[in-house]
Write a structure and sequence with these properties.
402 residues, mainly alpha, 16 helices, 81% helix
Length: 402
């Protein structure tokens, strides 16, 4: 271990703060979904226009992560994170006061561009400061937030919109933004001791280097697929739960929240076994669970056996596999490009959001939502399994303890 690496290990970074900044970006993605009809009526906007507040948020979250990683490799993690959190706070304030749909859409894009900083830099800071034996466990916790956030957001948003009005959602996010900016400014030290001169050509070269690193690219693609395999389910849950199973629309949020249970159990298992079991096994087992359960999901739907209880069980089991494989893939991908930890974390996050958007888009091509969901999940988890197989057959050995 180099001297500089040893020095960073001595820095004390509050893990709860990294959890908070990571959660803020992903939870805000879907927190506004339950309030779309009410907000649309208040602003005089059509449903298609209101949907842009979600689509552009996902786009902003994906694109923002491409920027923050390389910037933090040159300017440092702390100032880059503070800029991102400030943008998140500013976007939340504008959304809170937005008089028209156009203002709201612009605010959501700004909010997403800021929220991307927490997701990217939380991972990079863990990579900077965690001892090798702790990297996988700590990254597992942060990675859980990319799974929990989309499921937790609709529950929080539905409660706030129902009891306090749709603008209370953005008041909540403003308060969260204030806490994050203040705590990051007061408590977060600089963790990147190997900064490089800022050069746009250098950033482009970093990404070319990452794309040329087949081991990193394969782990990144596999991890992105594992993490976002639940997005097709979140996109089709209202139709499966309400239209197919005949349950009240208010119950949709709880079916979405079932993804939290499975992902949490999978991540806790990965954290508990990290250091005792090869994390490569997490990759294969997690992806295999996802592929198997999505196949079972399709068969249950085609046979007409789908019930609310069975839907919950299948969802929890499937997201357990995602929670098991995702942190291992993240750890392996960052360890495959240690000199570019910031850019690697950013590109990994971009891949997650891009695959999530693709999965959500794919389900729109099917006439039967549950069938489209199952087929999309089968394709995504199958790609994850193939990517892990490719990465683990590369001749470059994985770093010890990664």
């Amino acid at each position: 271990m180099s001297a500089s690496r040893s020095d960073t290990l001595e820095l004390r970074v509050p893990l709860w703060l990294l959890v908070l900044v990571t959660l803020s970006g992903t939870m805000a993605m879907h927190i506004f979904v339950p309030a779309l009809p009410v907000a649309g009526a208040a602003l005089g906007a059509a449903p298609a226009g209101m949907q842009q507040t979600i689509t552009l948020y996902v786009l902003g979250l994906a694109l923002g992560q491409l920027v923050y990683g390389p910037l933090s490799d040159t300017l440092g993690r702390r100032p880059t994170l503070l800029v991102g959190l400030s943008l998140y706070l500013l976007g939340s304030v504008v959304a809170l006061c937005a008089p028209t749909l156009e203002w709201l859409v612009g605010a959501r894009l700004l909010q997403a561009l800021g929220g991307a900083a927490g997701i990217t830099l939380g991972r990079a800071i863990v990579r900077d400061t965690s001892a090798p034996a702790r990297v996988t466990a700590d990254l597992a916790l942060l990675n859980l937030l990319t799974l929990v956030g989309p499921g937790l957001g609709p529950i929080v948003g539905a409660y706030l919109a129902e009891h306090l009005g749709w603008r209370s959602i953005y008041l909540f996010l403003v308060m969260m933004g204030c806490v994050m900016v203040l705590c990051a400014w007061r408590l977060l030290p600089e963790t990147n001791v190997q900064r490089k001169p800022l050069a746009l050509a250098g950033i482009a070269a970093d990404y070319r280097s990452l794309l040329g690193n087949r081991r990193y690219t394969a782990f990144m693609l596999g991890g992105a697929c594992s993490t976002t395999a639940l997005y097709p389910y979140l996109a089709t849950a209202p139709y499966i739960v309400h239209e197919q199973l005949g349950l009240p629309i208010s119950s949709v949020g709880w079916f979405a929240a079932s993804t939290i249970i499975g992902a949490s159990l999978g991540t806790m298992t990965a954290r508990r076994l990290a250091g005792r079991v090869s994390i490569d096994k997490f990759l294969y087992v997690g992806a295999s669970i996802g592929l198997s359960l999505s196949t079972v999901f399709l068969l249950v739907q085609l046979m007409g056996w789908m019930t609310p209880t069975l839907l919950l069980a299948l969802t929890i089991a499937m997201t357990f596999g995602a929670g098991l494989a995702s942190p291992a893939a993240l750890s392996r991908s960052l360890s495959s490009a240690p000199a570019l930890a910031g850019a690697a974390a950013g590109f990994y996050g971009f891949g997650q959001m891009a695959m999530g958007a693709l999965g959500s888009k794919l389900v729109g091509f099917g006439a039967v939502p549950a069938v489209a969901c199952a087929l999309s999940q089968m394709a995504i988890t199958g790609l994850a399994l193939a990517s892990y197989r490719f990465a683990l057959t590369r001749t470059v050995p994985a770093p010890t303890g990664a």
